[in-house]
TrEMBL record, chain A:
It is a multi-pass membrane protein. PANTHER family: CYTOCHROME BD2 SUBUNIT II. This is Cytochrome D ubiquinol oxidase subunit II. Its main location: membrane. One of its GO terms (biological process) is aerobic electron transport chain. The chain crosses the membrane at residues 13-43, 88-107, 119-143, 163-187, 208-227, 239-256, 268-288, 308-328. It is found in: Cell membrane. It comes from Acidihalobacter prosperus.
Automatic annotation (TrEMBL), chain B:
It is found in: Cell inner membrane; Cell membrane. The chain crosses the membrane at residues 15-41, 62-84, 104-122, 129-149, 188-209, 221-238, 328-352, 367-386, 417-438. InterPro entries: Cyt-d_ubiquinol_oxidase_su_1. GO terms for cellular component: cytochrome complex; plasma membrane. This is Cytochrome d ubiquinol oxidase subunit I. It comes from Acidihalobacter prosperus. GO terms for biological process: aerobic electron transport chain. It is a multi-pass membrane protein.
Length: 345, 480
């Protein structure tokens, strides 16, 4: 029995990492698509808006699927958390889903439309904006934790609007700013350098860089005072590690800004990805062992070990495979385009 | 009582809505990807241009459908946790695992290759492209398989024990290969194939009616009809087998979908009557009105003249499913199955008489019209089949083990109504959009003029301009 619980704990930990990885990939990959969608709201030229959508034609679906994979991992390894957190987050998730729906079909339908192009453009832009906002809000709401009912299956116990707080509204705004920055960098990397859109995206990146910097600082300070679990880690005996991490993040952010200013667009995207990876990793480390702070540790929320073992054996090996073909896709669709690019199917 | 509280009913209605709207898309994705693979494979093998044109044309319809399927499918995944939190927790060790397998081995797999299949023309080689199409086919069927594993397990939950409110898996093989799955998956997969074949046949028939691209679509129609002569009766056979699994393992569900209230007649003999039409009255526990054929029910379910079929009176009142919807949904599904078989036979008869050859022989217009109409019927059959399955399982979410009322999240009525209204609006936009653009692409017709793309000669990442002859922007393209 002892060894079983060791396996249980180790596998829970591994799947927690896999869950974090999927969310992180979703944020890095689809963050760019969502941000490009937000940017498209400020683009006047219809062909340019179409080209923004065309630029992600072959990849948006795979990017978005990392969210579905994260959901699948959560249901498969942490059903207790899945069943209660999603219930708690019903309203923000509902708006996220509705936005994802309208955005996805706008991407597929627009190319076939003549008279309804504007409608799908708005669907794509506003869908991107509200999906980002509500997903960010859901993340903020999770950080605050939620009350559970007592009983064998502790489910969410509370009102429909509990997710709503100043902090969760703020994380929604923060997500929009962060995605906008990622979207700008993505468009810089995907469009030909002499397009007007390339210039516009450059200004957008510059503005959002400072906004994002401010948003991160505010979020950190807010978290420090609002969340004891965060404060105790950051100010504990290992404070120097967190300081070091912070310094590395600042370094990466500065490198990103410089690379972008020098038109090294791919490099800038990679530096931004590094920033996201480091910050996401930092957040997971801060939260450990909580999956939902104050509510579920990853060990309490996990499946019984026999299911975790089965899950690991059945699908563990697929994660590297998924990464491989995902990478191949980006390779195939990697070149720069101009505003006359369109879906070619 | 709790079971029929407004909140529980709304949760069921919300879920019924999103499932019904989602199930409109994946069957076509599954079936059509197989047909696309066959067509592209024939093209790569023979180099005949019409296979290429057919592949490219039906791919356009495929991607419209696929986008709608993904959009509504993401909702499905989240909806389990949102609307059925306690069920998700209790069934997590098995059901959650299976859905996790689905997202990792199928959903992501499919999303990866579908981009290459649709947008990879000219960017990747011919064989790599065929490989992408093959993977889309395989992954979409794999996805259906996992979903059916999960759903069938809710019908016939074997291999698990309920311990402390959680379904612990004792035997993975038994749980995955549960009795219902062994027939429900083939039944669903063949349904997808039949739907896609009628989709192709219906569109082809429409072109023949309009006398457009006759040579191309005569060929498509011929192949589809010959396939249907095998597929349509096979589906009826599988459905009969699944019916007997339901009779054996879910007697209350079977009794509901047959409107079979009484095991015995008042005189003590076995009630073997099969109702063609009935007006079920759940409160009184009988049919207020029925047209009944004697012996047919026993023949169908036990394959004997007077075999005993358990009636609803055998079950406690609160263990009985509602009858009206399963009863008529089931009959409609069966009727459609036989009707489609008849259409397939008619087509095969015409083909054998040489009226579907490539010599431009004329087909009766009635037949073409019926075939166009038949393209919509498989959708109705999928819907009614799914409703039969899900409603006849009530009041259980996991048959015999966990009641639906115990599985729903305790939500406010307001939130559930908000959810329902939001998803009605958005999914109607998706549905309307999908059919609008299907119609548009079909009206426009296949592209017969663009040069055939033989392989990966285009620059990687190149995207085509939207209109032929449109001028390029004035700035020069940078050299790579």
């Amino acid at each position: 029995m002892q060894s079983l619980s060791v396996i249980q704990n180790e596998l829970s930990f591994i799947w927690w990492i896999a869950l974090g990885l999927s969310f992180m990939l979703y944020i890095v990959l689809d963050g760019s698509d969502l941000g490009a969608g937000i940017f498209s709201l400020f683009v006047r030229d219809e062909d340019e808006r179409g080209a923004i959508m065309a630029s992600m034609a072959g990849t948006w679906d795979a990017n978005e699927t990392w969210l579905v994979v994260a959901g699948g991992i959560m249901f498969g390894s942490f059903p207790m958390v899945y069943g209660s957190a999603f219930h708690y987050l019903m309203i923000p998730l509902m708006f996220t889903l509705l936005s994802i729906i309208i955005r996805a079909v706008a991407l597929e339908f627009r190319v076939h439309s003549d008279s309804s192009k504007r409608f799908w453009d708005w669907g794509f832009g506003l869908g991107s904006l509200s999906a980002t906002f509500f997903a960010g809000m859901a993340l903020g709401a999770v950080l605050k934790g939620f009350p559970l009912s007592h009983g064998v299956l502790p489910n969410y116990e509370g009102g429909d609007l509990r997710f709503l707080s100043a902090f969760s509204l703020w994380t929604g705004v923060g997500a929009v700013v962060a995605a906008s920055l990622a979207g700008g960098l993505y468009l810089r990397a995907r469009f030909e350098r002499r397009c007007p859109l390339y210039e516009q995206a450059g200004n957008w990146v510059a503005a959002n860089f400072y906004l994002a910097l401010a948003a991160v600082v505010v979020t950190l300070i807010w978290s420090l005072f609002a969340f004891p679990w965060a404060a105790s880690k950051w100010t504990g005996p290992d404070a120097w590690i967190w300081l070091l991490l912070g310094a590395i993040i600042v370094f990466a952010a500065v490198k990103m800004r410089l690379a972008s200013a020098r038109q090294q667009d791919m490099t800038a995207m990679l530096w931004l990805s590094a920033v996201v990876v480091l910050m996401w990793g930092g957040m997971m480390a801060t939260m450990y062992p909580w999956l939902v702070p104050g509510t579920w540790t990853l060990y309490d929320g996990a499946n019984p070990s026999n299911s975790l073992v089965a899950f690991t054996l059945a699908v563990g090996g697929f994660i590297p495979v998924m990464l491989m073909y995902n990478w191949y896709q980006f390779w195939v669709f990697r070149a720069r385009i101009n505003k006359l690019a369109a879906y070619a199917h | 009582m709790l079971e029929n509280s407004l909140s529980v009913l709304l949760s069921r209605l919300d879920f019924a809505w999103i499932t019904s709207m989602h199930i409109l898309y994946p069957p076509l994705t599954i079936g059509l990807s197989l047909l696309l693979f066959v067509a592209e494979w024939r093209w790569v093998g023979s180099g005949e241009e019409h296979w290429y044109r057919l592949t490219r044309f039906f791919e356009k319809l495929f991607i419209i459908n696929f986008g709608a399927g993904v959009a509504t499918g993401v909702t499905m995944e989240m909806a389990f946790g949102i609307l059925y939190g306690p069920f998700s927790q209790a069934a997590g060790p098995f059901f959650g695992n299976i859905l996790g397998y689905e997202t990792i081995t199928a959903f992501m797999y499919e999303a990866g290759f579908v981009g290459l299949m649709i947008f990879g023309w000219g960017k990747i080689g011919k064989r790599m492209h065929l490989f992408a199409t093959f993977n889309v086919m395989l992954s979409s069927s794999l996805s259906a398989m996992w979903i059916l594993v999960a759903n069938s397990w809710m019908q016939t939950p074997t291999g698990v024990t309920l311990k402390n409110g959680i379904f612990m898996v004792d035997n993975w093989v038994k749980a995955i290969l549960n009795p219902d799955f062994l027939l429900a998956f083939p039944h669903m997969w063949i349904a997808a194939l039949e739907l896609a074949l009628f989709f192709v046949a219906g569109i082809s028939a429409w072109y023949l009616l309009k006398q457009r691209h006759v040579a191309l679509f005569q060929r498509a129609l011929k192949y589809a009809l010959f396939a249907l002569v095998v597929v349509a009766p096979l589906q009826i056979y599988l459905g009969d087998g699944l019916g007997r699994v339901v009779a054996r393992d879910q007697p209350a569900a079977l009794a509901a979908l047959e409107g079979h209230y009484h095991t015995y007649n008042p005189d003590g003999s076995v009630n073997s009557g099969w109702h063609i039409v009935a007006w079920p009255n759940d409160t009184a526990g009988r049919n207020d009105f029925a047209i009944t054929l004697p012996h047919v029910l026993s023949l169908l379910e036990t394959h004997t003249l007077n075999g005993k079929v358990t009636g609803l009176d055998h079950f406690k009142a609160d263990d009985r499913p509602p009858v009206l919807i399963p009863f008529y949904a089931f009959r409609l599904m069966v009727a459609i199955g036989f009707f489609l078989f008849a259409v397939a036979l008619w087509g095969a008869y015409l083909a054998l008489k040489g009226r579907l050859g490539s010599q431009g022989a004329q087909l009766p217009r009635t037949f073409l019209r019926v075939t166009v109409f038949s393209a919509f019927l498989p959708y109705a059959a999928v819907w009614t089949g799914w409703w039969t399955r899900e409603i006849a399982r009530q009041p259980w979410v996991v048959y015999g083990l966990m009641r639906t009322s115990a599985g729903v999240s305790k939500m406010s009525v307001g939130a559930e109504v908000l959810w329902l209204i939001g998803f009605i609006i958005f999914e109607m936009i998706v549905w309307g959009g999908a059919w609008y653009f299907f119609a548009k692409v079909v009206r426009k017709g296949p592209d017969m003029d663009s040069p055939v793309i033989e392989g990966g000669h285009e620059h990687l990442g190149h995207l085509e301009p939207p209109h032929e002859g449109q001028e390029q922007p004035e700035y020069p393209r940078p050299a790579y």
